[in-house]
Amino acid sequence: MPLRRSAYGKPFLAGPGRPAFSVSHAADLALIAVRARGALGVDAEREEPGRPGDAMARRFLSPVELAVYEGLDPGRRRGVLTRWWTRKEAYAKAVGTGLSLDLTSVTLCAEDPPISAPLPGWTMCELPVPSPYIASLAVHGPVEAVFWADWSPT
Question: Transmembrane stretches, by residue range (predicted)?
């Protein structure tokens, strides 16, 4: 199975009937999502104090998302923004454009907690990763099941 890259740099397995996959990592957490067919994306982030939350929100959230974000208690904003960011990046990976997608043009998180079906035909969910990490999965179509496994080299 030859590995190729799209025009946006997204790796994929070439040929008909090949599984789709997405990869993400943050610090010492790595995620690999695999699906028999259909678009998917996964993203993981480590919640870090000092990340420029409000500036990042103004740069990447849609006007609807930004209004909801700015209405949140300031103490909750960082965690909410990290959750929303992982959804947006997972979606950008799933559609194949990565961060070349204008994320302000897509409203995925119009409430907190994020709605489960923000775009028709898409399923998005958080993944059960250990704190201080947050991870999201975006799938075009339904998700029948998610199988999760931890792996350690020791």
Answer: none
